[in-house]
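notes to self, project folder thing:

trying the whole complex as one job this time. last attempt i did each chain seperately and stitching them together was a nightmare. two parts in total, labels are on each line so i dont mix them up again. if this works i'll redo the older ones the same way
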Amino acid sequence: MRKEFAKLTFVLGLFLWGIQAMGQNHTITGTVLSSDGQQLPGVTVVEKGTVNGSITNIEGAYQLSVAGPDAVLVFSSVGHETVEINVNGQSNIDVVLEYENFGLDEIVVVGYGTQRKVNLTGAVSVVDGEAISRKPAANVMSSLQGEMPGVAVLRSSGQPGSETSGIRIRGFTSSNSTSTLVLIDGVEGDMNLLNPDDIESISVLKDAAASAIYGARAAAGVVLITTKSGGSGKVRVNYNGYYAVNVPGNMPERVPAWEEQEMINVARFNAGGNPEWSPEQSSWVANPNFNTRPNNGNGRWDYFQATNWVNEGTKDYTTQQNHSLSISGGDEELNYLLSTGYYTKDGLLKYGPDGYDRYNLRLKLGANINKYMSLDLQTSYSGAFTETNPYSATNILERLYRVRGRQAIYVPEEDINESIYNGDLQQNAIDIMKNGGVTNNRYEKYMGQGALTIKNVIEGLSLKLSASRQNSNYNSEVQRRHLIWRDRLGTGIRFQINNPNSLVKTKNYDYQNTLEALLNYEKSFGNHTINALFGSTYEEYRKDEMSGTARNLNSNDFFSFNYYDASEPTNTSLSDGISTWAMNSYFGRLNYNFNERYILEANIRYDGSSRLAPDYRWQAFPSFSAAWRVNEEAWFDVFQVTNLKLRASWGQLGNGAVLGLYDYIATISSGNHMGNGYYFQPSLASQSKTWETIETTNIEVDLGLFNNRLNFTGDYYWKTNKDMLASLQLPSILGVGVSNANLGELDSWGWELDLRWRDRIGDLTYSVGFNISDNQNKLVKYNGINTINAGTISLLEGYELNTIWGYKTDGYWSSRDEYLEYKLNNPGYQSFSDGKIAGGDVKYVAQGNPDHMIGAGGGTPEEPGDLVYLGNTNGRYLYGLNLSFERKGFDFSMFFQGVGKRAFLVQTGTITPFYQTSTMPWTIHRDYWTEDNQDAYWPRMYNNNGDDFNFKASDKWVQNGAYIRLKNIQLGYKIPFNKSVIENARVYISGNDVWEHTNVLSVFDPEVGNNASANYYPFFRTWSLGLNLTF
Amino acid sequence: MTIKSYVMKRNIWLVIFGSVLLSLGSCDLDFEPETTLTDVSFWKTETDLKGACNRLYNLLQYNTHDTRSDELVRTSADNVSSGNASVPSSSGNWTDPYYRIFTANNIIEKGINANVDAAVINRWLAEAYFFRAYHHFELVRRYGDVPLMLKAINDTEDPLLMSPRSPRETVIQQCYSDLDFAIQWLPDIDELNESDWGRVSRSAALAMKVRIGLFEGTFSKYHNLSSNHNAHLDVAIASAELLINEGKHELFSDFQTLFLFEGEGRQNKENVFVKVYGPNGEGTVTHNRSRLMENRVSVTRQMVDQFLYTDGLPRDLSPLKIEVESSFDDVFVDRDPRLNMTLYMRGEAAYKGEYIPFSNQHGNGYSLKKGFLLSEWETNSRETIDIMLIRYAEVLISYAEALYERNGSVTDEQLNMTVNALRTRVGFPTLLTNAFVTANSLNMRDEIRRERTVEFIDEGFRYDDIIRWKIAEEVLPVDILGAKFVDTETSKSRTEMRMTDADGKYEGREIHDQSDLIIIELASTRRFDPARDYLYPVPLNEISLSGGAVVQNPNW
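result (full assembly):
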């Protein structure tokens, strides 16, 4: 295979050498005006069928040299109709451009080609590259949030380099992980490694009609990203950059040390124990002049300091910046674009490594070799570099939240220890940040792509051959320094981490080759137009990774495999792993258009994958769709309706995201037990496993009113995942893992609305866009799994995914006597931890007669005991609202985004003060139950020691995750320069995530995942100042 | 362009397209794992067999500081001990043993075809048989009847997966026969070379039979099961006699260092089956026993009161008892030497310097000294002292108990080789004889049980013992008492501490004969339902996933 690839590259290279330049000889000048008589700057004037072109200046004037007097000029400008004019020997051509009948001629990128938007039969949403590059966001994925109906961006945290975890198109298509297929210029890639400024457009293929051409990997939707190419005309230099300040969003706040001590005392007393400290000792914590005293009994200090660890360990704000510079230009024969990008963001942790850098370089060349052949070449580099602490940022945050407030950061000066840091009651997170070591991850990816197009040999027929190779290098180095915190005498060790110190180096090299051949035929006869596509691809992937670990390095400050204690076998470990897969596919598309009125389309793809057992390896995925452009009918004449289209589609798509590489082969895993290898079979092989097949049906209405100023698109769809891979639920007496099998069934359905109004009043251009979508699902079949307990149940037959079950509560018991009396009146009733219950404990309401122990009953939805359904964690009614205005060089936009309905739970250990001895209370917990504060939000303080009896999943603790958020607000100004010097200069100030409204507990961002925990890396609010310059 | 060249061009063009398609079509989709062994390529050599058996040791666990009985308490109530447990959806107590049983069954089924001598195969299969019995017994102890798994199921449709619970007698009999295979084929403990230390030997298999026989015999006897309890006791007695007569084992001389590094290895002939941790000082396989002694558990006053006085008499009978204690240390006066080998007295070098009651440790009971090593505590949960899972002393005391339960009597000679051997080792001056029991109106059964209780504190026996003796209903739902509080002996303040009053009462209730004993848990918060709590609840998922073939234990 590699041979073929090399040959193809060579051939493509030869063609490139053959490119010749040709001169121009006919010059045309003129002025472009709008229909209301204004001079139009920035209008593109192109010689038709070439890349030769120019742009009008501030007076609307242009000048262009064309090949000959019979050339055709194309005038186009955003917001205006495009006009074509035959030169016919003229040398002065003035043109008036009508305001655009918005949207009709928009060209949309679809699978293996493009299509006019009006002729689409499938559901495709499009975002313009400018919408991405104008938003200063951490990565491309986060800037997609709210832009398109039915496309949900899953944010994970504010941690540099880990902001998003994926996108979900039209809700769940499977209970398994489904990854959206992202194709960058036709090659599978990671959109977050892209330079946002490189993007020309993003198409999201949402239904089977649009994406069946991608077959087995298309079920979760397909994202097609097209990068910018060089244009014709003079050299253009474009700079886009911003500098931003990130302020952490919602975070839990800790109470002062003396208050914390009081809560600890109360909690311990309530739990039947003794206060940790006497009132006198507790009072010393509040005394700023009395911080330590030696404890002679145990060789330690007693600390009475008051330290706000979270403030000491985190920054008030962080910064991020992005700069990209591109140069493009070209002529009819050759055009080019060179772009570079740099992005950097530093993290919240005050000390030590916590940051992310990204570098991008892309070079594109397009060559029209002759009438029959054109060649496109592209190469790119992306580098992502992350620096973190090996203890992990989230664990450090957790320590900052856990350490007692009365523990000082430093040991007293008279201390004799080598370390100045105090790790008496808890590990010292500040010391860990400064001295715990470093993790460096370097990921670098190179891509080369060449495509040769042969066309016009037979009219309407074209052949495109393309090949690409992506290589990446991953280098990870983890240096863990051994830290020890001693007692006052220096003899006893209070805590230590990274014992022994260690160095782990992981390196991998991977490549992915893609070969593709596409044959396209287009033919019109009379009112009939036929478009046929046939193609095949082969992809192969191989990753070779190796990892080595050395422990007990000679020095804590010099990390190399050359210097460690090699005498002990357990100090060394080595491992390697090779991953391989390949996929071979054939696909075709037939499109028939009758008189621009009736459009039919059929797609099919036949996929074969190395991941499946030979007998289950190949499968076909078909789709059919039709559209009726009602407004094109002769009889259609409805006031102000300029566009009306009905369309429907049906198809089958595959999901193979959960297929392992060699699932059909029983493998033996290994491990190391004190230097001895051990071997075992972790799970049974599954011979008969195959892709999940998702059947999708979509109906849609497109409506354009008032010259398409108002556009409306409405979709309704339903999908059935018939062969969902479900983990076999088997009694654990089996004693071994099982691979999943195609035995589940998931129904999913929803609707999407997209409404846009674009117009201008005088010189004010404005637009309003609103989109909203809903999706629901139901797990129809899942191997009969129907067990529930208090908490989130991800899989439950007959219900949607991720349902929350919990108990009903009714405030708090006012006293133990009340509880006992209730028990007496309701014989048999008993709450959790019966012996502990007293005033201020949650009153759980029994379902049915309160004559039993509160519990999960039979543990099924049919026999739920006292459990009730409390919602699910899937977001519903996702919406985005976009407002923008532009006038006299000023532009202003606001973008709101939100979720209408969602429920989630917070991790018990996070929401429960003193769930463990080290889980500290926060300011929100101040409102806890006491005799005098019976109306409190929180139950009484209790030294829970792992017993969650007051914090069982219940209606009291489930969070309402609905929110609305001002995702972006932006004000820009185009500085009027002489166009001949600076074509465009725009400055802007922009705010991301600056405001939200929600009922979620104030310490959490409403977008945190289910089972949110204290140590989540907070999201940021971002303010940026940016500049966009074009020469 | 001529027509000919046009056709030529089209042909070339078709050739290009055709060849590209063909080359793509012929591409390879067959890949095999290159860095992972497959089941087909494994199970060939002795190294493979041994490597597969190594997994059994990797999975073997040791449960530190069992707080399910009246022996050890945590700072808050243990749900099992206090009777507050509820039926879980799933539980490692059920799942983990079956995971290990599969591992053993897989070795038994596939190892048999290895290309080595049958004797060599059997030697490794014997390890698997040992662990299959070990883990089945673990299940029976908690759940009673459990599904018996003797096959490594390879097909998820196998009807065996819907097996109901087999009667405990059937499971126990299978354990015996698995152990018999192990006894026949496992090497003698002296034949293990140093690098194999920790692997099971013939001794371990014999001792397991003693343990299982005694457990099942007494459980059957006191819970009035229909099985022949004497037959189980006979298994225990016979296996114990075989092990004793083979003479491979003897008691380690020093009870105090027995639990420290000094007790490691074959040089300590008391080791019968050991979970090896280490390598020492570099721990990659570690535990946190010492660490947890400081901040998790303490010993109850109930246990302290079990220790004999030096005159061989229990607390209620001995004239040596201090009538009114005025110090924390008073309980240590004239006691079985093991009391101070097990617990700290004031001022002894302990976890964080000198031992100060209530102050520099977390519990309000008596603090553990047995097995504690400061240098290990300082590793912060990377401790590497090997843990004895079966020590010879257990075989001896179990032998004595089995004899007494089987015959209703035990000879002085038998007492000397068992109970008195343990007493002599620690320098306890009074021996247990039939005459002594008669003279002091003691009960021989109680004295043997007492010996077991005090010898094995914090070694994970007490809970199983009170279950099989059927005394949990008496010893669990009571006030759990801690140590004696004396203001001048601690930095803690008396205020807010819950303790007995001057008459040993609390809220009018008779608690103890001493004042100022900390009441760690009130009897009113504890319960034990004899109709329910002698068996664990079966996890709900196991019942529903078996389609109801597995049924719940009574009253859960």
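what i see at first glance: Confidence is low (pLDDT under 50) at residues 1-24 of chain A.
need to look closer tmrw
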